[in-house]
Amino acid sequence: MMGVLALLQDYTIQNVVAGAALLGLISGVLGSFAVLRQQSLLGDTMSHAALPGVCLGFIIAGTRHMGSILLGALATGALAALVMLLLTRMSRLKTDAGLGIALSVFFALGVVLLTYIQGMNNAAQGGLDAFLFGQAAATLRSDVWIMAGITVVALALVVALWKEFKLVTFDPEFAASLGMPVVWLEVGLTVMIALAVVVGLQMVGVVLMAAMVIAPAVAARQWSHRLEDMVWLAAAIGVAGGVFGALLSALSRGLATGPLIILSVSGVVLVSITLAPGRGLVWEALRLWRGRRRQRDQQVLTTLYRLAAHHDDPVYRSEQGMLDTYHGLGTRAALRKLERRGLVEWGQAPPGEPGPERRWVLTPAGIAEAERILASLNGEGA
């Protein structure tokens, strides 16, 4: 604990931690809308499309001025998203095809511009390619203030247009019927996701930024059932993952900050997908196991009912071995469970009848339950 507090006294680490927290906050909030709108690849497209903006910002400013670079990244990232929207609305292309086209074209343009800059003999170009994978250690206090300003603007817009964004996210057709400017609201959401991408360029870079936009929202989605809860939880996961990754990088000299931030948030995603109540893989496996056991119990119960009906005797006593043979495996566990529920009972065989002395017989409650199950199955078959 003392080691962490000592680290936080360092000027560079303060900048990195603050930047990571801001990145996690804006990514969690805005990524929630992207995930719910089934546009998870949107962050990937805009992060790659930001590269030509980074290059253009450098060319225009003539130096690595963060404001110019981020403004250029915002412009080309938002432009790529708008191109995708136009392609999907004015043609028969699906969203994934539009995203793929925009990503490929803009990223290729960025690589060309990056190659051009490398041949300019401008000393300030050094480290410009770090925007591909991020260079958190180069974050200055002025960069943090710029990131904070962008975050405040984006969050203020979300608060001001919360009802509109919520309705457009879940039911755009109904929003249009109410007279809302659905297209402009979608454009606004898209541009704000571009803002989140811009905030993360310095920290995690073009390549990894898509994961930062999506991961906190995906993790939060496993634990929440309302948009409000999801947004708050995604923001908390983003901030916690960003700060933890930044501190872990500071404690482990030589490890890149950006990838550690992504791995931290991805760890939360893995835990959420595995353990989240009602949605996690463990719960799903448990639900399937219980379903199979319930189905097995019902099969044994209906078998007893059919045997009784075949012998025209509602209290027909069935041998354990006969039931095992019929189902191809041991049925004692299922029968004991049915017995605890009061649906079958373990009774004496009729006097003088060959075979085991004790056998299984349906109770009145068991007969009623078997009839209900069979009626339900017949209804589904119809």
Automatic annotation (TrEMBL):
Major location category of this protein: membrane
A GO CC annotation given for this chain: ATP-binding cassette (ABC) transporter complex
Gene3D superfamilies linked to this entry: ABC transporter involved in vitamin B12 uptake, BtuC
InterPro entries (alphabetical): ABC_BtuC-like, ABC_TroCD
Claim: Oxidoreductase is one of the keywords in the record: no
Pfam family, one: ABC-3
Keywords linked to the UniProt accession: Cell membrane, Ion transport, Iron, Iron transport, Membrane, Transmembrane, Transmembrane helix, Transport
Annotated GO biological process: cellular response to iron ion; iron ion transport; response to zinc ion; transmembrane transport
PANTHER family: ABC-TRANSPORTER METAL-BINDING PROTEIN, METAL TRANSPORT SYSTEM MEMBRANE PROTEIN CT_069-RELATED
The protein, known as: Manganese ABC transporter, inner membrane permease protein SitC
